[in-house]
């Protein structure tokens, strides 16, 4: 059977990982497909200076991606440069030239993936995007096909390996966030500008994508309630452990009533749960279905080779479809119609809460805080205080009974104005029901 020719645009970590797998695993890939996947062209601004595998020595090496998207001999283009600028041009050009596209680009697909897929379908080509979420975990395939007979009700995920690495290091060693972040940057886990990771924006794009596949709606990432991990400190973990919990950047999508509650934020998770045991740069997704109950997916969330596996697996799927005539067998989003939707106001959601305070010690603090909570009909579950030496920044925790979030936010705004506060109150949901 005729081979399928691939053009790769972008030779960063993911591109090099995919290229390595295509070269070193070529024999087994061909045995599985019944034909070969040939790397016919690669594009990168530094491609000519890289040590490319000998197996692709005959490939076109270029710095101009247009030579790949317009190449008449290339069947599939892998866009692996990321972002929403040049990457969009690459994808749109490939589709316009009648080529299927494989991408690892969560930002672009979260923003415009449905429209890109519709243009691909209109041209009779395919869009595959498994590597865009959770690197080495085939979570798209699981939601789109593996459990597609179920009706998903809830998804919880740890979707950012950098944040999970930082939080587990803070937890293990009691080191301040800034110091762990600097070490993560030195080791290559975090970018020089870490804001996309630590402020939750990377995870937000991924949650938007998973929500589209799980619930069949198009969600603007900017509409998802998002909070990063910069305020999480070693003292928060000490109190969390007293409650039998750990802290993770939790991505949550719940179908309740007539809509979805979506959020990305640090939360307390019981140590006894599977999600609570996820450490380091690993990702995990827990899905609850109306009929099939709980399923759990775990693995490397990023990295050159794990993400490269997802890219190559997508290339193999597209190549099969090209050769065996089954293009558009299933939408990459799992639904044939994906309408736009707004998440429900997160302020309507009711949860238990963990409130951490830092105050200048003086009489009447608990009474003042309790009075504000009572004014907003918020019940206290417990007050926790570990020994501390600095009376000017004394930490303690109040846990709350089930509370409507809008009431809590109003109460926190009032509390932040109190003259004994050393730091604004820090609130995290307590997800005991996982």
Index terms:
3 domains; elongated; Dihydrodipicolinate Reductase, domain 2; 6-stranded parallel beta sheet; 434 residues; Alpha-Beta Plaits; Rossmann fold; alpha/beta; 6-stranded mixed beta sheet
Protein model, in words:
With 434 residues, this protein is of the alpha/beta class. It folds into three domains: 4-135 and 304-333, 3-Layer(aba) Sandwich (Rossmann fold); 141-301, Dihydrodipicolinate Reductase, domain 2 (2-Layer Sandwich), CATH 3.30.360; 347-430, Alpha-Beta Plaits (2-Layer Sandwich), CATH 3.30.70. The chain has helices at residues 13-24, 26-33, 66-69, 86-96, 106-123, 139-146, 161-173, 177-187, 195-198, 201-215, 234-242, 304-324, 365-375, 405-416, and strands spanning 4-9, 37-43, 60-62, 76-79, 100-103, 127-128, 152-158, 218-219, 225-226, 245-256, 259-270, 282-289, 293-300, 340-341, 350-359, 380-384, 394-404, 421-430. The strands form four sheets. The protein has a six-stranded parallel beta sheet, sandwiched between helices. A six-stranded mixed beta sheet has the order 9-11-10-7-12-13. Helix 5 links the parallel strand 5 and strand 6. The longest helix has 21 residues, at 304-324. It is elongated, with a radius of gyration of 24 Å. The mean pLDDT is 93.
């Amino acid at each position: 059977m005729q081979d399928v020719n691939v053009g790769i645009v972008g030779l960063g970590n993911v591109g090099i990982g995919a290229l390595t797998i295509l070269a070193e695993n070529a024999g087994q890939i061909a045995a599985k497909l019944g034909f070969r996947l040939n790397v016919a062209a690669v594009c990168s601004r530094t491609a000519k200076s890289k040590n490319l595998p000998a197996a692709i020595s005959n490939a076109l090496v270029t710095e101009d991606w247009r030579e790949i998207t317009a190449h008449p001999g290339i069947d599939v283009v892998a866009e692996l440069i990321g972002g929403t600028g040049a990457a969009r041009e690459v994808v749109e050009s490939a589709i316009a030239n009648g080529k299927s596209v494989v991408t690892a680009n969560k930002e672009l697909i979260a923003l415009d993936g449905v429209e890109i897929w519709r243009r691909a379908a209109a041209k009779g080509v395919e869009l595959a995007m498994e590597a865009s979420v959770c690197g080495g975990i085939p979570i798209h395939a699981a939601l789109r096909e593996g459990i597609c007979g179920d009706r998903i009700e809830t998804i919880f995920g740890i979707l950012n390996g950098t944040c999970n690495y930082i939080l587990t290091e803070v937890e293990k060693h009691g080191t301040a966030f800034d110091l762990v972040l600097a070490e993560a940057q030195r080791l290559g886990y975090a970018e020089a500008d870490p804001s996309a990771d630590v402020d939750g924006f990377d995870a937000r794009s991924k949650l938007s994508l998973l929500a589209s596949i799980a619930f069949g709606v198009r969600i603007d990432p900017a509409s998802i309630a998002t909070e990063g991990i910069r305020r999480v400190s070693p003292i928060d973990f000490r109190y969390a452990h007293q409650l039998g919990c750990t802290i993770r950047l939790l991505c949550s999508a719940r179908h309740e009533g007539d809509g979805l509650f979506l959020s990305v934020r640090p939360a307390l998770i019981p140590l006894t749960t599977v999600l609570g045991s996820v450490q380091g740069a690993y990702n995990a997704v827990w899905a609850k279905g109306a009929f099939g109950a709980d399923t759990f997916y775990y693995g490397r969330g990023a990295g050159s080779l794990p993400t490269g596996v997802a890219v190559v697996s997508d290339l193999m799927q597209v190549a099969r479809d090209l050769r065996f005539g089954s293009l558009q067998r299933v939408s990459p989003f799992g639904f044939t119609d994906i309408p736009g939707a707004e998440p429900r106001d997160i302020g309507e959601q009711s949860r238990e809460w963990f409130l951490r305070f830092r105050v200048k010690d003086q009489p009447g603090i608990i009474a003042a805080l309790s009075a504000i909570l009572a004014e907003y009909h918020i019940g206290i579950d417990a007050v926790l205080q570990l020994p501390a030496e600095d009376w000017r920044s004394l930490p303690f925790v109040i846990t709350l009974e089930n509370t409507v979030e809008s009431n809590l936010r109003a109460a926190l705004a009032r509390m932040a104005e109190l003259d004994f506060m050393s730091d604004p109150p820090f609130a995290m949901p307590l997800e005991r029901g996982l």
